[in-house]
Specification:
Helices cover 82% and strands 2% of the residues. The protein is mainly alpha-helical.
Length: 361
């Protein structure tokens, strides 16, 4: 048990160091190449932190368990928004860039709708998976072409948010090295953390099913968690939000695209995912719109609301897996009281924001 404890501590340490290295390298890299930190967060950082999901999805397909790829991606996308944005916003309210509201969130919703549409017949064929992968390439190319040279004002803003001036990381090669080293530490740290946490859970008598629904699902999102939280602490909030939205897009397009291509029969979508989890993922994507549009920021209470919903979603999964007698009452409370009250609160907040904006204009 001592070895597992040391592995757990080492995993946490690697996550912290990897997130620090990745955020620092990405911030400097954005400045060196004259592009916004948001674009770096949506592409380099998002794709890199999605590496565990890609590895799990492709590995599951090669092992003859393609439905696991669906569950991993859907669960990670839900965790990315509810858990990661929730934690980051509780640490520091997140200002959402206008590009995220006008472009990336609608694209994320559209891609989520596409996944639901493709999955309704029970599988995602290899041709459909190839289409998803092509969309991933096209999305990345579009963002790269869209990124223009930063204005002098944007450069000054980025410089103001960067860490204390040091000369050793001014060269782009060093910055790329920081990004790669950070990604490597994040992936390795997440792997160590998951392995040790599974050992702890089994020692406490927790079933493998519950471990899979909790520890492993969160474990594959640990790079995103560490990176977004570090970015929020360092004031790089564009990277914090861009990492989450970009990761969700890459999870659907790149992860499922690659997993579906390597699987000889495509990806089989479990009935449970079609009847519940995919719709939760879609609802969570839509929930970003009213929150992001209201002052274009995620406030602390909204972050706490996200965290509460993630806890409720996890509790539902555990109760459902165990066929617990409390499940009907829990579901009834969520459907009849909590969800309508939240929808009403967000609607009122959005309407008040719209009225205020019209008066000011």
């Amino acid at each position: 048990m001592l070895a597992e404890l040391l592995l757990f501590a080492a995993g946490l340490g690697l996550l912290a160091m990897g997130a620090e290295s990745l955020v620092r390298g990405a911030s400097r890299l954005a400045l060196s190449f004259g592009i916004s930190p948001l674009v770096v967060g949506l592409t380099v950082v998002a794709f890199g932190t999605s590496a565990p999901e890609i590895a799990v999805a492709v590995g599951a397909s090669l092992d003859g368990n393609p439905s696991l790829a669906i569950g991993n991606v859907v669960g990670s996308n839900i965790a990315n928004i509810l858990l990661i944005l929730g934690l980051s916003a509780v640490i520091a309210p997140l200002v959402v860039a206008e590009q995220i509201v006008r472009q990336e969130v609608p694209v994320m919703i559209g891609v989520s709708l596409l996944l639901v549409a493709l999955a309704l017949d029970g599988d995602i064929s290899r041709a459909e998976a190839a289409g998803l992968l092509l969309l991933s390439v096209g999305y990345t190319a579009f963002l790269t072409l869209q990124a223009r040279k930063a204005s002098a004002r944007m450069r000054a803003d980025v410089e103001a948010d960067l860490p204390e001036d040091t000369r050793w990381d001014r060269h782009w090669a060093v910055q790329v090295g920081l990004v790669l080293a950070g990604l490597g530490m994040l992936v390795l740290g997440a792997d160590w953390l998951v392995d040790s946490a599974i050992t702890f859970a089994r020692a406490l008598g927790v079933s493998d099913l519950v471990i899979g629904l909790t520890v492993v699902a969160i474990g594959t999102s640990m790079p995103e968690i560490a990176t977004s939280m570090m970015a929020a602490l360092r004031g790089q909030r564009d990277i914090a939000v861009g990492n989450v939205v970009g990761s969700n897009l890459f999870n659907i397009l790149a992860c499922l695209g690659a997993a579906g291509i390597v699987s000889p029969v495509g990806l089989l979508v479990p009935e449970a995912a079609r009847s519940f989890d995919l719709w939760v993922m879609l609802a969570v994507a839509f929930a970003c719109l009213p929150i992001f549009l209201t002052r274009r920021e995620i406030r602390r209470w909204e972050g706490a609301l996200f965290l509460g919903y993630y806890a409720a979603y996890t509790a539902y999964l555990i109760l459902s897996a165990q066929h617990h007698e409390m499940l009907p009452m829990f579901s009834g409370v969520m459907l009849l009281f909590v969800l309508p009250l939240t929808a009403l609160t967000l609607t009122v907040s959005f309407v008040r924001h719209t009225v205020r904006a019209r008066r000011e204009s």
